[in-house]
Amino acid sequence: MTLRRVVAASELRTAVDHARRFGSSIGFVPTMGALHEGHAELVRHAIDECGVVVVSIFVNPTQFGAGEDFDAYPRPLDTDLALLSELGAHVVYTPAADEIYNDHAATRVRVGGLALVLEGERRPGHFDGVATVVSILLNTVGVCRVYFGEKDWQQLQVVKRMVSDLAIPVHVVGVPTARDRDGLALSSRNSHLTKKQCVVAPSLYKALLHGRELIDTGEIDPAVVEAAMSKALANESDLVVDYLVAVGAATLQPLDMLIGDIRLLGAVHLGKTRLIDNIGVHVAGE
Ligand code: AMP
């Protein structure tokens, strides 16, 4: 089957309803485009598990804050469509902004708790924008398996929370982070890095691995692990740490002791580019 491009929500609904009527399960991969191997992994998982795979490409204005890179966000649509075709996705939805947000739109979806820390604290309104656009897209696609990357761990947890709280009839699937050979998590924003910054960028992942090593060898004090991760990045040129934390994997809240499912999350500024990454570690409880 060739890739079919649709631009209207009504067309997408019709395509999905048609597939369902013929017995296909639906896999859905929401993206902002500038697709790379990380997105490709989500699409491959969806193709493995579902009959018909829908990918959306929409650079969502409401999840960018003032002064963030909405205008500069890469939009290589032709390359994206070629990749999706090659991967075997069935439908790509590329709505214009007014197809998603009508002129009279007055509703925002706001997740509390875990959405208010870390990225939520640094990027006020970001997760409101994410939760709102994901709700709109899921209401258009309907019952499906929806795929999100662990690369954006907090986003994945926020979406899971929202889907559960609002009883949205979809199953959220998390997909492990795709990385370059040097460990750098793939991201559309990596294209903004200079050659020199590309050499420094993998140090974020290395700092997280260092934190995990400490935990694996018995350290259970989050403050010690967090300080060690920061120290590992102290001498990297052009790199400024935003946060490096060891928190509860599902709640993203600080812990007194590192026991259970832990997530190490970091954000750094590398010149004008902001990078985020995370890894997991499990510590058996007493
Ligand atoms: P974006 O286009 O940045 O909104 O990302 C769309 C989806 O791809 C999100 O669920 C991301 O978490 C996921 N994603 C982005 N980068 C990666 C990566 N390196 N590995 C796995 N998933 C990713």
Report on the architecture of this protein.
The protein has a 6-stranded parallel β-sheet, sandwiched between helices. Strands 7-8-9 form a 3-stranded antiparallel β-sheet, covered by helices on one side. The protein is built from 10 helices and 9 strands. Strand 5, helix 7 and strand 6 form a beta-alpha-beta unit. The mean pLDDT is 97. It is an alpha/beta fold and 286 residues long. Adenosine monophosphate binds next to helix 2 and strand 5.
> Distance N terminus to C terminus?
53 Å
Number of strands: 9
Mean pLDDT metric? 97
Structural class: alpha/beta
Task: Give unreliable regions as ranges.
Answer: none
How much β-strand is present in the residues? 15-25%
The topology string of helices and strands comes to EHEHEHEHHHEHEHHHEEE
Summarize the structure.
The chain is 37% helix and 22% strand. By secondary structure, it is of the alpha/beta class.
Features:
single chain; 286 residues; alpha/beta; 9 strands; globular
Task: Summarize the helices and strands and which ones pair or pack.
Elements: E1 4-6, H1 9-21, E2 26-31, H2 37-49, E3 52-57, H3 77-87, E4 91-93, H4 97-100, H5 119-122, H6 126-141, E5 144-149, H7 153-165, E6 170-175, H8 195-200, H9 203-216, H10 222-232, E7 239-248, E8 260-270, E9 273-283
Parallel strand pairs: 1-4, 2-3, 2-5, 3-4, 5-6
Antiparallel strand pairs: 7-8, 8-9
Helix pairs in contact: 6-7, 9-10
